[in-house]
Amino acid sequence: MAIEKLRKEETLEMRKRFIGQSCRLFYSDDPVKIVKARGQYLFDENGKRYLDCISNVHHVGHCHPSITAAAAAQMDLLNTNSRFLHDNIVLYADRLAATLPEKLCVFYFVNSGSEANDLALRLAQQYTQHDDVIALDHAYHGHLMSLIDISPYKFRKLSGQKEWVHVAPLPDTYRGIYREDHPNPGQAYADTVKDLIEEVHRKGRKISAFFAESLPGVGGQIILPQGYSAKVAEYVRSAGGVFVADEVQTGFGRVGSHFWAFQLQGEGFCPDIVTMGKPMGNGHPLACVATTVEIAEAFTANGVEYFNTFGGNPVSCAIGLAVLDVIENDDLRGNAKRVGAHLKDLLTKIQTRHQTIGEVRGVGLFVGLELVTDREHKTPATETAARVVKRLKEEDNICVSTDGPWESVVKFKPPMCFSMEDAELVVQCIDRILTDMEASDS
């Protein structure tokens, strides 16, 4: 039986009636109804094509034929509880292990990044027998209660900070406490974590884990300063804790030069736990926790079985394997490196013409355009960023969004098939819009 097709007005009315209003739409004042997608393009009910700079979850491109074929073939054969013995989960784990440092060799498959981070928290607390967690300011690690508790981005709007949660400064060298003119910002920011650990110890408490996105996204597309993670890991491990790298948004080659964003911190750095999310399944519910034998053994030793009914099911793992094949066969890491560098270069060039562009930052296809009302004081240009996003959608059929503590960073996390021509189009349109806005405001 075919699914009934609704007019856009009917869809909106039914959504308002049936779907919780806290589940907000993109462009809520005039939502886009998307009915089809291919690659880096979205299509509305009238066939209008939009360039998608938002959907990092659709990692190798919307509706990639190889992914669709792998999903359909396995779904036609078997999809069942992951506690039955099956090849796909072990074959997929073996392929993932080949991308990671040798010590990260035990995997737990789940269905979402939130589930992965919640499990990482359990693993850390079980292994260390400590409770407290250090998180970065403005961090977001998921929507479960346990993760809202370690996500300042969320808990500051809700019930506030729990006594077992401690917030370290975001290592932002543009507007943070240590900036690009500091001789060693990585060490300086790491020392703030060391000071925080000492403060925690003075209260008679102990650290189980330091949680950080390898490249903070909600914080504003932040690139961590060199040396930061290795030093933080040293301090955290000395305090009996573990280092958790949240790669939900940044893993699987998005940074181009490396498969994992934590690898940007140098060969000498390896987290104790790595979490992954739905990009690994190209949007299919597939996520994972990778950790060490020692941490996994401590989790097993608690005597309580861990099972996740459909985490790592045959269909999910068939899709995961297909995604890895596409990343390799289509050279998507190479594409991310080339196109991301081109996008950054083009944005940096128009920065010379527009005082409202405070900073261009990023790596691979993880790029942020920080807008300010004045460069000296770096005052966030929240309204300008919102107007740019609105006009790109309305005038150019380009979908982007904002991030950062003040929603002043226009962010780019497109599908990895994003092209040189796409980058050129986006920058050309932003240049035109900013020029027009500056003329109107003068």
Annotate the secondary structure layout:
Elements (H helix, E strand, L loop, with lengths): L7 H11 L15 E5 L2 E4 L4 E4 L12 H13 L9 H11 L8 E5 L2 H16 L3 E5 L8 H4 L3 H4 L9 E4 L16 H18 L4 E7 L14 H11 L3 E5 L26 E4 L10 E5 L1 H8 L13 H16 L2 H20 L5 E7 L2 E6 L10 H15 L1 E2 L1 E3 L5 E4 L7 H22 L1
GO molecular function: lyase activity; pyridoxal phosphate binding; transaminase activity
Keywords: Lyase, Pyridoxal phosphate
InterPro entries: Aminotrans_3, Aminotrans_3_PPA_site, PyrdxlP-dep_Trfase, PyrdxlP-dep_Trfase_major, PyrdxlP-dep_Trfase_small
Structural shape: globular
CATH superfamily of the largest domain: Type I PLP-dependent aspartate aminotransferase-like (Major domain)
Q: Helical region count?
A: 13
* Structural domain count: 2
Tally the beta strands: 15
* Structural class based on helices, strands and sheet pairing: alpha/beta
Unreliable spans:
none
- What is the percentage of strand-forming residues? 15-25%
* Gross CATH architecture of the largest domain: 3-Layer(aba) Sandwich
**CATH top level class name of the largest domain:** Alpha Beta
Order of helices and strands: HEEEHHEHEHHEHEHEEEHHHEEHEEEH
CATH topology of the largest domain: Aspartate Aminotransferase, domain 2
Q: Main sheet?
A: 7 strands, mixed
Radius of gyration computed on alpha carbons? 22 Å
Strand order of the largest sheet: 4-10-9-8-7-5-6
